[in-house]
Predict the structure.
Amino acid sequence: MGVHRRRHHNVPGVAAAAVAMVAAGALVWNASYAAFSATTSNAGNSWATGTVSITNDQSGSAVFSVSGAKPDTGTSTLAPPGTGAFTAASASSGGSACFKVTYSGTMTANVKLYAAVTETGADGGLGQYMLTDIDTGTDTAPGADVSCATYTSSAYLFGSAGNTNVFADTLPTTYAGAASGWNGATTGTSKWYRVSWLLPANVASAAQAEQVQIAFTWEAQNT
């Protein structure tokens, strides 16, 4: 009986596949090293805004609250002294108050003072009859000095010593309309303001039963 030997004719195909795999491997190897690279970076970039912050030592409090104002017994001219407070015959006819304004923002700013005035009464309000002025200066008090005990005037901001009525004439009502009173304010700096008033002895009788209210605002805007 003859022996039949089974011949495998696919050996060349296996060899070809092996060669193809080796070739593919070579291609992959070459591709993984086809380019060199390098990088550089700059991390930690950020932006933050500065601050504008301002306070006064009498914030939230009224320093003038005169319910029975009356004409001074003899004085008809408002003339605050160079130091201290203006003194009338009584606290009901005139006086002064001092404010310390402190800037604590991180950006340099310009500070201006303006006010909102409310007049009531049959004759149009009391402001038209009062003499008032506002000046700036220095003070050696470590804290508040509402009574102006150690205040020294340096310049008038609104009005002048004499027959002045800032309520009716010169007191601004907006930041844009206010004169530059404090430019270049920096963190931790302060400025003092003195407000003086007088209901003069020669005031008209029409001033009876009239009223005026005022709210001061110090505003800082960065430069």
Summary: The helical segments are 11-32.
